[in-house]
Write a structure and sequence with these properties.
With 183 residues, the protein is α+β, with helices and mostly antiparallel strands. The chain contains three helices and eight strands; from the N terminus they run H-H-E-E-E-E-E-E-E-H-E. Bound molecules: 2,3-dichloro-N-{2-[formyl(hydroxy)amino]ethyl}benzamide and nickel (II) ion (NI). GO terms for molecular function: metal ion binding; peptide deformylase activity. This is Peptide deformylase.
Length: 183
């Protein structure tokens, strides 16, 4: 099972590299990795397991956070309406996005960052993501709100981008005109 010792931290080169596309169909090894990543997220959100294995909670995870420079991500969370997003995705790609911006009012955190980083992470308000799921099915997801934010955080990891790269250092709580806060 994946635990915190498997997660690389700031300074590890994998966090700043371009992860490689994964040839399709994915192999058993990559399918197992996606399952292990999903299991980690579920464990990290389970009070008992998180306590037992000292896991920090996460709603998403990208393979580069494990030092594996492949375009693989997992997400596991519910949106405000209670819809479950639970995916192991291969080569996810943002194929279109809104001009409008949004940001989490509470800021963002990252398992690869062992320190709180203040400020609003300004992202696209709406995105369309194309990906292949762990069973080889082609997906096209139209996302907004919290799900759009989480997917952007994870896809950023595949491109060597950390959430604080989007924070305006001089004015961390400044947001562009019309940006939508997500509570
Ligand atoms: O890359 C994934 N992580 O680092 C897992 C830990 N962070 C979170 O779960 C998290 C927390 C707040 C906002 C967002 Cl968007 C995310 Cl993703
Ligand atoms: Ni992260």
């Amino acid at each position: 099972m994946i635990t915190m010792k498997d997660i690389v931290r700031e300074g590890h080169p994998s966090l700043r590299r371009q992860a490689k596309e994964v040839p399709l169909p994915i192999g058993e090894e990559e399918k197992k990795l996606l399952n292990d990543m999903l299991e980690f997220l579920k464990n990290s959100q389970d009070e008992e397991m998180a306590q037992k294995y000292q896991l920090r909670a996460g709603v998403g995870l990208a393979a580069p956070q494990l030092g594996i420079e492949k375009r693989l991500i997992a997400v596991h969370f519910e949106d405000t309406s209670g819809k479950l997003y639970s995916y192991g995705l291969v080569n996810p790609k943002i194929v279109s996005h809104s001009v409008e911006k949004s940001y989490l009012a509470g800021g963002e955190g990252c398992l690869s960052v062992d320190r709180p980083v203040e400020g609003f992470v300004v992202r696209h308000a709406r995105i369309t993501v194309k990906a292949t799921d762990m069973d080889g099915k082609e997906l096209k997801l139209r996302l907004k709100g919290y799900p759009a934010i989480v997917f952007q955080h994870e896809i950023d990891h595949l491109n060597g981008i950390m959430f604080y790269d989007h924070i305006d250092e001089k004015h961390p709580y400044k947001v562009p005109e019309g940006a939508i806060p997500i509570e």
